[in-house]
Amino acid sequence: MSKLFDSATVKEQEAGTRSPSSEGGVKAVAPIALIRSLPATGERRSPRTLIFTETKAIVDDLKAKVTQAEKTSRRRWLRPRPTSASSSLAGTHAGPYDAKLSAELKKVDPESSLTALRTHLDTLQTKVATASAAKDELTDEAIPALKSLEDRRNELLDELHAARKERREARRTRVDELNAKTAGFVKLDVPSEGDYTEFREALNRLKVGSRAREEVVDAIAKFTHPFRFVRALWGGDVNELVDDDKGIDAATVARLLANIDERNLWEDLLAAQLIDRPDVLTVRFRKPDDGMYTPIEDLAHGQRCTAILVILLADGDTPVLVDQPEDALHAPWIEEYLVDRLRNLRGSRQYVFATRSPGIVVSGDAEQIVTMKATAGHGEVEASGSLERHDLNKLALHHLEGGPIPFSRRTQKLQASTQ
């Protein structure tokens, strides 16, 4: 452009204007041969004015072409990717501009080009279409199907929970019947919390990394049913599980819920909902010395055997066979517990004892006594019947008391304590 304002050139232009037909004039204006026409009017203008006018027209024309090329390129980017034939044609029409634009893109990112951008755009459009189809399928099919499955699962869980509850109530009814038959010697119970060991182990897996306090987790395992625990957390209802009286605070429950979500333990949570807390039968025995009921786990061996035998005698109506109970029972308790039960339950079922205890045979008022003798090879019946039979009475005295002489000695020496 600087040549347009060169003073020598201007002078040559002036000469060319005065003498359009001269050869030198034509050659002089060769540098500005892009000027399309002179003003149509007959008005004479100065050479400088003509130069500026024609130059502005050239610049405006170039700007319009550049703007049109940019619009054409943008429309091409937004159209679907052309076939090889159409792509070749497009490259023919917009080749120079595309090449220039590609060069500018490579200055910013060496890996970029118009072809790469168009390919990336096609890929994104394909992904958008796939995502849109997936969204429609999720909204129209998957979510309703999931809701239906959740509803069905909850129905089955309700049925399972009701069946377990019915089973527990049946066991408690049976326990009440047994308590009535044991005459207060033994108390049985089926606690509502059951055995929560398995549920506590499941909570251990769910709490890893949550920094939940152990005593709160223990309280959840003991006082919260797995069914209720999982349903509350699945619905995000932390306050449903809070129980200040039991030591279950909202902060600990919220930590458990956050940990389950962060570690994606939802499947483990749902599995915990199926855990059963098996019913536990607690047995307490009333001691004769203080009359207090003591858990069977805290009793001595003989006391445990007494408690179990009292329950055995009261439970059912089928025959009962007991082998030498005196080996495990304290002698006074045979009279206080066992004999008392045998007398009160007489006629309800048949009891068969293999025993040397005079308390069971005599104090229990046995209706049928069978005495036996044995050798190394075999045993045989000596006699059978009741104590009213003289021969059987003598055999009973021999087997139970060691004979008349030991019995007389004990009677003489212990008789003072009976008065």
Task: Give a description of the structure.
Helix content is 61%, strand content 8%. It contains 15 helices and 7 strands. The strands form 3 sheets. A 3-stranded antiparallel beta sheet has the order 1-2-3. Strands 4-5 form a two-stranded parallel ribbon. The chain starts with 6 loop residues before the first helix and ends with a helix. It has 419 residues and is mostly helical. Helix 6 (197-207) crosses helix 7 (214-223), helix 8 runs antiparallel to helix 10 (266-272) and helix 11 (301-314) runs parallel beside helix 12 (331-344). The chain is rod-shaped, with a radius of gyration of 54 Å.
Secondary structure blueprint with pairings:
Layout lengths: L6 H12 L4 H6 L18 H32 L5 H25 L5 H68 L4 E4 L7 H11 L6 H10 L2 H9 L15 H13 L3 H7 L9 E5 L6 E3 L5 H14 L5 E4 L7 H14 L6 E4 L3 H6 L5 E6 L4 E7 L4 H12 L2 H15 L1
What keywords describe this structure?
three-stranded antiparallel beta sheet, two-stranded parallel sheet, Rossmann fold, 419 residues, single chain, mainly alpha
> Could you say which structural class the secondary elements and strand pairing correspond to?
mainly alpha
Q: What does the average pLDDT come to?
A: 79
* Architecture (CATH level 2) name of the domain at 304-418: 3-Layer(aba) Sandwich
Q: How many strands in all?
A: 7
Low-confidence regions: 1-7, 9-44, 76-93
Radius of gyration: 54 Å
CATH class bucket of the domain at 304-418? Alpha Beta
Secondary-structure element series: HHHHHEHHHHHEEHEHEHEEHH
